[in-house]
Amino acid sequence: MKYRFYNAKILPSPSEEIFDGEILTDGSTIAAIGACGTYKNQADQEIDCGGNLLMSGFCNAHTHAAMSLFRGIADDMPLDRWLNERIFPMEDHLTPDDMYWGAMLQIAEYVRGGITCFADMYFYIDSVCQAAKTAGLCVALCGGSSSDSDVDVLNFIEKSYSKYNTMSDRIRYFPGLHAEYTCEESLIAKVADFGAECGAKTYIHLSETLKEVGECTVRHGGLTPPQYLHKLGFFDNGGFAAHCVYCDKDDIALLKQSGVTPVINGASNLKLASGIAPVFSMLSQGLAPALGTDGTASNNAASMFREMYLFSCLQKESLKDASAVSAEQALAAATVNGYSSLGFRGGFFRGGNFADMALLDLSAPNMRPLSDIRKSLVYSADTSDVLMTVAGGKIVYDRGNFYIGEKLDKIYSECEARRDRLLSAL
Predict the structure, then answer these.
(1) Radius of gyration of the chain (CA)
(2) Cis, bond preceding 369 (omega within 30 deg of 0)
(3) For 300, phi and psi rounded to 5 degrees?
(4) N or C, where is the chain less crowded by C-beta within 10 Å?
(5) For every residue of 245-282, which 3-state class applies, written as one string?
């Protein structure tokens, strides 16, 4: 199926100028980008963008999609109580079907807000993969096991790596672990060795809380989590570190040296009172952070607009410098940085890249006047401004209508019933 998206203002990438033009897609990819009228009568279907903004879809580079089932039932609690009194007990009762319907609910929210790619670290990855395939989104499945997992973790990682990395160019798998504090040293070392053998990037939660860092230094002779993982070779082929709230300048230099992408989760870290990641320092040292929403049990939304705003504005306040972290840097973190680090062809518009796109309403009051659209995307826009989302050349959301392979009413009823069952286990 070929689509022609015409009469659009096009933002090719966060660093490029917006221009009036059109995009031709062919199947799952972008075939061509050109000036107005260039591809007339060359598509199976032509879509008038109405002078609105066509930009890359967003990449949510750290999330736990099926935690949508827990939204609103573990709020206003300290992290330790949040985990031990609510989340962990309910997670003990999750089933593969729970994961599928929870992921579908989250995917509906994703496409409503222009998200076309996500990196998921949670349980029953077959179910999450099926949900992403059903909807048509790019998904990176990230190992999140711990020493308490009820499976042979290394065997599971080896099989998953072979299975999912040969399935589709819109599906990837990264070996990884939950966190330093939930994994024995022998397990971390084995996963590091596996990564070295197959040249794979690895994924882990890192330095999310001050308590985590302090206890790590006590356990490991003064080493911080990044230093400890470096000692074990965990990031020898690069990787992803979610949160990085308490990384000092030496930790950041080590992450840069190791080719690690920090994934910043500003809203979740604020809501759980975990802290503010040193994004400005990361950017200053040449890192290219990506953005994530974390799970919607701790956020509680999956809005990349809110994450972009916080990515920039939290640094401005922390440093008392309104020029710190530009809107363009926030846009890059929400698009190209995530896509490129995960190895997907997207995050910016070029021929051959995935046709993962979001159409934003420039007639909305919060977007006017059209002074600097890129700045307005970060400081003014929100999910309500998304008119259409295209994933892999397929329209998955269009002005209130969802085309993700499951009916919204069915998703809602399944999730409500599963939420009730999980709550009854507390």
Answers:
(1) 21
(2) yes
(3) -110, 20
(4) C
(5) CCCCHHHHHHHHHHCEEEEECHHHHHHCCCCCCCHHHH
CA-CA distances (angstroms) from residue 136 to 151, 310, 339, 359?
29, 28, 16, 17
Q: For 36, phi and psi rounded to 5 degrees?
A: -55, 135
The one-letter amino acid code at 138 reads: C
**194 neighbors 158 (Cβ within 8 angstroms):** yes
Q: What is the pLDDT along the chain (426 residues), one digit of tens a residue?
A: 999 999 999 999 999 999 999 999 999 999 999 999 999 999 999 999 999 999 999 999 999 999 999 999 989 988 778 888 999 999 999 999 999 999 999 999 999 999 999 999 999 999 999 999 999 999 999 989 999 998 999 999 999 999 999 999 999 999 999 999 999 999 999 999 999 999 999 999 999 999 999 999 999 999 999 999 999 999 999 999 999 999 999 999 999 999 999 999 999 999 999 999 999 999 999 999 999 999 999 999 999 999 999 999 999 999 999 999 999 999 999 999 999 999 999 999 999 999 999 999 999 999 999 999 999 999 999 999 999 999 999 999 999 999 999 999 999 999 999 999 999 988
Find where tokens 């994994």 sit: 183
Task: Please name the amino acid found at residue 245.
Answer: V
Q: Which residues pair with 409 in a beta bridge?
A: none
CA pair distance 401, 117, nearest whole angstrom? 19
4 has which bridge partners?
Answer: 24, 46
